[in-house]
């Protein structure tokens, strides 16, 4: 199966057993360097600045959009994005050129999508791709904006200090009803009437974005996601899993932390085990609804190479 065909069948896939893969990798002496402890000498701030610059350069280098691949499986993984109330608000964090934003906007014509990235270049590409896709009323439903969510946090127009405070009081007017269609406008209207901000969001999507953030800054980044969600809102997570084929391809000198690697262009990638992902979200205050490995076997048509892909699928709720 080619990589693109594999992508269409990624939904909760279990082509192989992750535990068997783990044993195989951990017993292979040639891969032993992936398991060694690592002490990072760089200060946190330096990590973050370098990481942002690397992503900005990456998007300038790849501005042709060759890397654009619509994540068609996304609505199967996260059906709440279709069944949610009309006017529900989604925040797609690290939207890149819109691979996740586009299927969400296409799959639910009543959804409002805020999409941020730390690169203005890629935000422009995302706007172009989505505008060219003939999705209904996209000019009113897509709100792209620049933001480094891990360092400076989300802008106040998403959720002002007052609303963030209200979310922690679980005011009835702030509650998200992500699970059901709403028949009449209640909560979002009353928030908007205050005209302080958009009143927070019902969903945050973190799709292959958290792994791009330095491990040290992940707790702050997740707390920020928590703070803009309405009580009851969902954080939808998908990212690289431990012992994914792409992790095993990194050389030992590309390690920049434990299970953390840097590509030759300076962008980073972290590979999550279930416990690390779970602990990060629970420490920020979330309740775990789902977390599992998604294991997909595919064969590269060009060279016949067999590839075992591992992703972590997670769903977390703000109490
Ligand atoms: C692998 S891409 C994922 C894109 C998209 N979510 C998708 O589903 O394809 C990671 C994106 O996160 C962005 N990013 C990395 N660090 C960020 C940060 N601190 N704040 C905002 N965006 C960031 C990068 O510019 C990049 O576009």
From TrEMBL:
One Pfam family linked to the record: Methyltransf_23
Gene Ontology MF term list: RNA methyltransferase activity; S-adenosylmethionine-dependent methyltransferase activity
InterPro entries: METTL2/6/8-like, SAM-dependent_MTases_sf
Keyword annotations of the record: Methyltransferase, Transferase
Enzyme class: transferase
Signal sequence, start to end: none
EC number: 2.1.1.-
One GO BP: methylation
Family of the protein in this entry: Belongs to the methyltransferase superfamily. METL family.
Purpose: S-adenosyl-L-methionine-dependent methyltransferase.
Database matches in PANTHER family: METHYLTRANSFERASE-RELATED (PTHR22809), TRNA N(3)-METHYLCYTIDINE METHYLTRANSFERASE (PTHR22809:SF14)
Name of the protein this chain belongs to: tRNA N(3)-methylcytidine methyltransferase
Species in which this protein is naturally found: Durio zibethinus (Durian)
Lineage: Eukaryota, Viridiplantae, Streptophyta, Embryophyta, Tracheophyta
Gene: LOC111296422
